[in-house]
Amino acid sequence: MTLSSIPLATSDLQISGGIRRSSTQICAPVMAETVDQMLLLMRKAKELGADLVEVRVDFLKNFNPRQDLEILIKQSPLPTLITYRPIWEGGQYDGDESQRQNALRVAVELGADYVDVELKVAHDFYNAIQGKKPEKVKIIVSSHNYQNTPSVEEIGDLVAKILSTGADIVKVATTALDIVDSARVFQVLVHSQVPMIGIVMGEKGLMSRILSAKFGGFLTFGSIEAGVISAPGQPTVTDLLDLYNFRQIGPDTKVHGVIGNPIGHSKSPHLYNGAFKSVNFNGIYLPLLVDNVANFLNTYSSPDFVGYSYTIPHKEAGFNCCDEIDPIAKEIGAISCMIRRPDGKLKGYNVDYLGAIAAIEEGLRASNGASNGSGSPLAGKLFVVMGAGGAGKALAFGGKEKGARVVVANRSYDKAKQLASKVGGEAISLAELENFHPEEGMILANTTSVGMKPKIENTPLPKHALKHYSLVFDAIYTPKLTRLLREAEESGATIVYGTEMFINQAFVQFEKFTGLPAPKQLIRDTLARNT
């Protein structure tokens, strides 16, 4: 099942960043052991900008339903959704079922705005209240699947089953085993004739929580504090509002993202979402934890899924999925940027080499006190590239184009040899690199992931080998100062941060995504704040 058939508006109107484009609400779960702690959290939720709170009374110690609910409902500064989740549906309550349902009936009677009732007991619950429900109280009938995400047909049947109970609002939460699982929930959500909450849990389901505003979800959940979550994969209220510009997402918002695995470290959403908002571009940029690139692209094939950045390990897989490839990207054999053209065709570009080579040249010019005269300061230099993957290829071809003598060092010698032969260079294994110094003043570029968060104590080359290099560049940008760069600087080399490559290629990608000039200073400032 793909998203190509979903009837979505595709207008590209640039409207003021202040306009709210969807009615999807942000609900902050409140979990605490005492009523007083809950009231504090409710006030915090309001300050953060949440629209309502989910009061998870199954977390309360010594819960006295009538007394506690009266305080929580009447004193909440925001509308309340009362949830008393039993252990058999992923909650904390492990007691008598009739007592639990009795507490939920008290919440209805006391005028909670919403009360969550699990599908398994919904018929019993409705029979017990016998239609005695204040008009303003809405019943959410919920189903949680912690194993997987069923087919569109099965989700549709589940929605029908929930509706048959008399539910005012349908809630379906499933679990993402793959990022494409969210598409099945979107498919049901966008066609739902009744208010529906559709959430796909887990890191691979993050897009379901953010794009619920695009596909018409009734609400999404955002945690009050990072890590204090009521379900796996929940973003914070602050991230929804400030990082993902949740209020500005609507049916015609264009979807972009960075495709990689792992992807949690990526700073790209901070850069592009802020930049999109600054020029009133109706777009969103997401971290996309993708296992299979072809499967992802085939699933999200609607015209509104328009642009992607590619990172480790998917640059070559992205290349193989393009309908058309920019000539330099074709030579490199890997892409770092993909655009869906208006005719639906996917075009690939490699912007890594532009960003990285420009950053290295700037570093060389600064250290030599040279001006931007004719010719590249890389010309004639011995240029050692560590790694022969997508970024390694980009650097090797970029170096060749600038007249450098390229040496490719890779864990697999065969892969190094393959790349070196394409750029007229030399190949060595990474093990040999430690003792490789045919001359002084060489240039080193690391494109491996050694030293990237969380394993920041690792380095691809021991410190004693770094004294032979005049400049060292590391493509890693989390952390900004890797162990390799720190030790290179201590050894007397000029260092160039991966952030410089990242910034240069971000300018190019922003312009490809939006057709507008990049707000360069804003992008630089944003990156400085987030590294």
Automatic annotation (TrEMBL):
<dbReference type="Pfam" id="PF08501">
    <property type="entry name" value="Shikimate_dh_N"/>
</dbReference>
<dbReference type="GO" id="GO:0019632">
    <property type="term" value="P:shikimate metabolic process"/>
</dbReference>
<dbReference type="InterPro" id="IPR036291">
    <property type="entry name" value="NAD(P)-bd_dom_sf"/>
</dbReference>
<dbReference type="InterPro" id="IPR022893">
    <property type="entry name" value="Shikimate_DH_fam"/>
</dbReference>
<dbReference type="Pfam" id="PF18317">
    <property type="entry name" value="SDH_C"/>
</dbReference>
<dbReference type="InterPro" id="IPR013785">
    <property type="entry name" value="Aldolase_TIM"/>
</dbReference>
<dbReference type="GO" id="GO:0004764">
    <property type="term" value="F:shikimate 3-dehydrogenase (NADP+) activity"/>
</dbReference>
<protein>
    <submittedName>
        <fullName>Bifunctional 3-dehydroquinate dehydratase/shikimate dehydrogenase</fullName>
    </submittedName>
</protein>
<dbReference type="InterPro" id="IPR013708">
    <property type="entry name" value="Shikimate_DH-bd_N"/>
</dbReference>
<dbReference type="InterPro" id="IPR001381">
    <property type="entry name" value="DHquinase_I"/>
</dbReference>
<feature type="domain" description="SDH C-terminal">
    <location>
        <begin position="498"/>
        <end position="527"/>
    </location>
</feature>
<feature type="domain" description="Quinate/shikimate 5-dehydrogenase/glutamyl-tRNA reductase">
    <location>
        <begin position="378"/>
        <end position="449"/>
    </location>
</feature>
<dbReference type="Pfam" id="PF01487">
    <property type="entry name" value="DHquinase_I"/>
</dbReference>
<dbReference type="GO" id="GO:0003855">
    <property type="term" value="F:3-dehydroquinate dehydratase activity"/>
</dbReference>
<dbReference type="Pfam" id="PF01488">
    <property type="entry name" value="Shikimate_DH"/>
</dbReference>
<dbReference type="InterPro" id="IPR046346">
    <property type="entry name" value="Aminoacid_DH-like_N_sf"/>
</dbReference>
<dbReference type="InterPro" id="IPR041121">
    <property type="entry name" value="SDH_C"/>
</dbReference>
<dbReference type="GO" id="GO:0009423">
    <property type="term" value="P:chorismate biosynthetic process"/>
</dbReference>
<feature type="domain" description="Shikimate dehydrogenase substrate binding N-terminal">
    <location>
        <begin position="258"/>
        <end position="336"/>
    </location>
</feature>
<dbReference type="InterPro" id="IPR006151">
    <property type="entry name" value="Shikm_DH/Glu-tRNA_Rdtase"/>
</dbReference>
